[in-house]
From TrEMBL:
It comes from Mortierella isabellina. GO terms for biological process: transcription initiation at RNA polymerase III promoter. GO terms for molecular function: histone acetyltransferase activity. GO terms for cellular component: transcription factor TFIIIC complex. SUPFAM superfamilies: WD40 repeat-like (SSF50978). Pfam families: TFIIIC_delta, zf-TFIIIC. Residues 21-409 form the Transcription factor IIIC 90kDa subunit N-terminal domain. This is Transcription factor IIIC 90kDa subunit N-terminal domain-containing protein. Residues 651-727 form the Transcription factor IIIC putative zinc-finger domain.
Length: 727
C-alpha cells in the first residue's frame, strides 16, 4: 500500500485530524466544501483494477437547497434580523462496523452550521454512492439550546460481545456540554451531560477508550478537551438499556492554551492519553479495574516542549504506534517527532523520528517529481516545494498511516506561481518488520478468533497483504499451518445451548469455529493474490495449494459444526412444536440429517445426534425413518461399510415438475427431468426462489429466512457461515 502514488484531493483540509480511517477500510478527508472518501484496494476482483483507489466525494453543494444555508435569527439589534451561514463541513467521525447499518461503517458529519448528519454507502451499487441516512439535528430540539451548537464528534468502539455492535456517538458543544446518541438505546433521544461547570469551556476534541466489562454493565472513558485549555475524563456506563455519565477529574486548570490534537491508545486495561497544546505535548497513563476508580498511574503528566513553529497550531496530526509505546507527531510545516517515555521523562526518539522523516520525505518528493514531469518543466532538477501536513490516521490494523498533505511549490522563473495541490498518501510503520508483524498478527488474529464477526475482516486482509508483500507468502503458510494446529488443539468442546440463542451468536462465540472460518477466509484471499499476480505480491503454487487443502478441511469441519448446532437446537423443541410441522418443514429437517450420513464421518459425535432425530420422527408418528435407522445400525456393527447416495429416500419435489430430487450433491440438485437447482449451503434445500443471500467473498449462497423450523435458529445469521463476510 505504501508503494501506491498519492491521490489528489480538490481542497486542502482546515484542521487537525482532518483525515480518518474506518474499520472497513474507508478513508475520509474533510474540507469545508467537500468530504473525499477513498478506498485503498488491497486485492482486485476484475482485470486492471489492482491497486485502484475508489474516489468518492460528498459535496456541500449536493445537499438539498434547504440544507445548504442555515438561517440564524438575531433579535438583539434592529439592523440585522437574520443572516445565513454556509452549511459546509466542519468535522466527521466513522462508526464501528455494524453499529448503525449491518456490515458497514456510517459517517457522522458535523457541518459548519452545527447540523449533525449520518451518511451511508448505498447497497448494491457498482460505484460508491453515499446518501444521507439520517439527520440527527432535530433530536436537539430548538436551535437555540446550548447542546445544538455542535463543534466536534467521536464514535466509540463497539461494545464487546454485543450482537448489535452497539456504540455511542459523542457530540461536543459549547458551555462544556456533551451529547450521547446510540442507535440501539432509544435512538430518538439525545442523552445530554454537562462535563464541568464552566461557561467558557467549549468542547472541541473528543476521544473514546475501548469498552470494559463492569459489575453493572459496560464502561468506557470519554476524554474531553475544552477551548479554554482544560481536559476531563468522563466515565460513560451502559446498563439495563440506559446511559449514565460521571466526570472523574479535570486537568490543566491554569494552562489556557487550547488543545489542538487529542489521541488515546486502545489496548487492554491500560490506555494512554496524549494532548497537544501549541508546541507542548502531554502524555498520561490510566488503568481500568472492574469495580474500582480509574487509576491515574503516577498521578502525573509527562510533558515536553518541541522546537516547532506556530504552524503546528491548527495544522497537524498525531498517531500512536501499534504497540502504544511511541507517539508519532507531525507538524504543519513538515516536521515530525516520535516521542517515548524513558526514565520518567518524555523524550524524542531520534532513530524512529529520522526513519519516519525519511519515509515521509520519499513519499512527498516522489509526488513533487511526478508533478514536475506532468508539467513538462524543462529543468527536472528544480523540484523545490513546501509540504504542509494536515492530518494522519492509522489503518484498521496499525500497519499503515494515511497522511493528508499539501504541496506548495516555491515560486521561481521556471515554476511560476504554481497553485497549491493537496494529496492523500500512505506510509508503512517503521518498526522492525519481524517485531511489528508478530505484534500485529497476534493482536489481530486473537481478536478475530474471540469475536469471529465480519468487522475484523479488513484487518485480516491488510495483514495478509503486508506479510505477502514482504516475504512472498512464506509467513502466510506458517500462519495457516499454525491455525490448523490451533484448531486441532481446541478439539470439539460440547456446545451449551440456551433456548433464546441464535445461530450466529453461537458460531461467533466459538474460538474453534472462528479459527476454521479464518482458515477459509485467508485461503479465499490467497487465491485472489495468486491468480491476479498483484505487483510485489508473489504467492507460490505450493502455498496456494496448501492453503486450499486446509481450507477444504476447514469448510468440512465448519459444515458439521453448523449442522450439529442446528440439529441440537431443533431437538430442543418440545413435542407439540414437532407435531405442528407440515410435510415440507419436516422434509427439510430430514434432508439436513441425511446430509450428515453422506458427507460427514459417522463417528461417536455424529451417530447419536442423527439417530436421536430419526427416532424422534418415528416415535411421534410423523414419518417412517426405519430404513435410515437400520443403515446406521449396520454401519455401527460393520455389516455395511458406508451409506451411499442411492440408499437414501429423496426428500424434495422439483419446483418445476414435482419429481423427487435425489440428494446427489452438496451444492446442487438435479431432478429426473434434468431441472438444475443450486442448494442452500446451510440447510441443503434447493434454491427455488430469487430471495438468496450470496457471500461476496466466497460466493456461498443461503436461502432467505422464511417461516418454518429454521426461522428462529437462522434469524440473526447475517454473515457468511464460512468466511464471516456480510451478505
Amino acid at each position: 500500500m505504501d508503494k501506491q502514488p498519492s491521490v489528489a484531493i480538490a481542497v486542502a483540509p482546515i484542521r487537525p485530524d482532518s483525515i480518518i480511517w474506518s474499520e472497513n477500510n474507508k478513508i475520509a478527508i474533510i474540507s469545508p466544501s467537500s468530504i473525499h472518501i477513498l478506498t485503498p484496494a488491497i486485492t482486485r476482483r476484475k482485470e486492471k483494477s489492482s491497486r485502484v483507489i475508489q474516489h468518492t466525494v460528498l459535496s456541500s453543494v449536493d445537499q438539498p437547497e434547504a440544507r445548504r444555508y442555515d438561517a440564524v435569527e438575531n433579535n438583539e439589534g434592529p439592523f440585522m434580523t437574520a443572516y445565513a451561514v454556509y452549511n459546509g463541513f466542519k468535522t466527521a467521525a466513522w462508526s464501528p462496523v455494524g453499529s448503525v447499518v449491518p456490515g458497514s461503517c456510517t459517517l457522522a458529519v458535523v457541518t459548519i452550521s452545527h447540523q449533525v448528519q449520518l451518511y451511508q454507502l448505498q447497497s448494491n451499487m457498482e460505484n460508491d454512492k453515499w446518501e444521507l441516512l439520517r439527520d440527527l439535528t432535530p433530536l436537539f430540539g430548538s436551535p437555540y439550546v446550548l447542546t445544538s451548537h455542535v463543534l466536534c464528534a467521536s464514535w466509540s468502539r463497539s461494545m464487546d460481545n454485543d450482537p448489535h455492535h452497539s456504540s455511542i456517538l459523542a457530540l461536543g458543544s459549547k458551555m462544556s456540554h456533551v451529547s450521547l446518541w446510540c442507535n440501539t438505546l432509544n435512538s430518538e433521544r439525545m442523552f445530554t451531560y454537562k462535563v464541568i461547570e464552566d461557561s467558557d469551556a467549549w468542547v472541541t476534541l473528543l476521544e473514546w477508550s475501548i469498552w470494559y466489562k463492569d459489575d453493572s454493565g459496560m464502561v468506557a472513558y470519554l476524554v474531553v478537551a475544552f477551548s479554554n485549555g482544560k481536559l476531563s475524563i468522563v466515565k460513560v456506563s451502559v446498563a439495563q438499556q440506559s446511559i449514565t455519565a460521571l466526570t472523574i477529574k479535570t486537568w490543566f486548570e491554569k494552562d489556557t492554551r487550547a488543545p489542538t490534537v487529542l489521541k488515546i491508545t486502545n489496548s487492554g486495561s491500560h490506555f494512554k492519553v496524549a494532548v497537544a497544546k501549541s508546541s507542548s505535548i502531554h502524555i498520561a497513563t490510566f488503568k481500568h479495574e472492574s469495580g474500582k476508580d480509574l487509576l491515574h498511574e503516577g498521578d502525573k503528566w509527562y510533558s515536553i516542549v518541541l522546537p516547532i513553529t506556530t504552524h503546528f497550531t491548527g495544522k497537524a496530526g498525531m498517531v500512536w504506534a501499534p504497540n502504544g509505546d511511541s507517539l508519532h507527531m507531525f507538524a504543519g510545516e513538515y516536521t515530525n517527532f516520535s516521542l517515548v517515555i524513558q526514565s520518567e521523562k518524555l523524550v524524542v526518539d531520534d532513530t524512529i523520528t529520522a526513519a519516519i522523516h525519511a519515509k515521509t520525505s520519499e513519499m512527498i518528493r516522489a509526488q513533487a517529481v511526478l508533478n514536475a514531469k506532468k508539467a513538462k518543466w524543462e529543468s527536472k532538477q528544480n523540484e523545490s516545494y513546501r509540504a504542509l501536513i494536515w492530518g494522519v490516521s492509522p489503518s484498521p490494523n496499525g500497519l499503515y498511516y494515511s497522511l493528508s498533505y499539501t504541496l506548495v511549490p516555491l515560486v521561481d522563473k521556471e515554476l511560476g506561481d504554481a497553485g497549491f495541490d493537496s494529496y492523500c498518501g500512505w506510509l508503512r510503520d517503521v518498526q522492525d518488520s519481524e517485531q511489528l508483524e508478530s505484534t500485529i498478527l497476534s493482536t489481530t488474529i486473537n481478536g478475530w478468533l474471540q469475536d469471529g464477526s465480519q468487522k475484523g475482516n479488513t484487518k485480516i486482509l491488510d495483514v495478509i497483504d503486508y506479510v505477502a508483500t514482504n516475504d512472498g507468502g512464506e509467513s502466510i503458510l506458517n500462519l495457516i499451518e499454525s491455525l490448523k494446529t490451533k484448531c486441532d488443539a481446541y478439539g470439539e468442546e460440547p456446545q451449551q445451548l440456551v433456548s433464546n440463542d441464535h445461530l450466529s451468536r453461537i458460531m461467533n462465540g466459538n474460538p474453534r469455529n472462528n479459527t476454521f472460518k479464518l482458515l477459509y477466509y485467508i485461503n479465499e484471499h490467497v487465491k485472489v493474490m495468486y491468480s491476479s499476480k498483484i505487483k510485489a505480491v508473489e504467492i507460490s503454487e505450493a502455498v496456494s495449494e496448501t492453503a486450499s487443502e486446509l481450507a477444504k478441511n476447514a469448510k468440512t469441519a465448519m459444515t458439521w459444526f453448523y449442522t450439529k448446532t442446528i440439529l441440537q437446537m431443533l431437538l430442543r423443541a418440545n413435542d407439540d412444536d414437532w407435531r405442528a410441522l407440515d410435510h415440507t418443514q419436516l422434509s427439510q429437517i430430514l434432508l439436513l440429517a441425511d446430509s450428515v450420513l453422506i458427507w460427514q464421518p459417522l463417528t461417536e459425535s455424529t451417530i447419536p445426534l442423527v439417530t436421536e432425530l430419526y427416532q424422534r420422527v418415528q416415535n411421534l408418528g410423523l414419518g417412517t425413518t426405519s430404513q435410515e435407522l437400520q443403515m446406521i445400525s449396520e454401519v455401527q456393527t460393520g455389516t455395511r461399510p458406508v451409506i451411499e447416495l442411492n440408499d437414501l429416500t429423496p426428500r424434495e419435489p422439483c419446483p418445476s415438475c414435482q419429481q423427487m430430487i435425489p440428494l446427489a450433491s452438496n451444492f446442487f440438485g438435479i431432478c429426473p427431468s434434468n431441472h438444475f437447482w443450486e442448494r442452500c449451503q446451510l440447510t441443503k434445500t434447493v434454491l427455488d426462489t430469487p430471495q438468496v443471500r450470496s457471500c461476496r467473498v466466497c460466493r456461498s449462497k443461503i436461502k432467505q429466512i422464511s417461516p418454518g423450523p429454521f426461522q428462529l435458529i437462522l434469524a440473526a445469521c447475517g454473515s457468511c457461515i464460512y468466511c464471516g463476510s456480510t451478505f
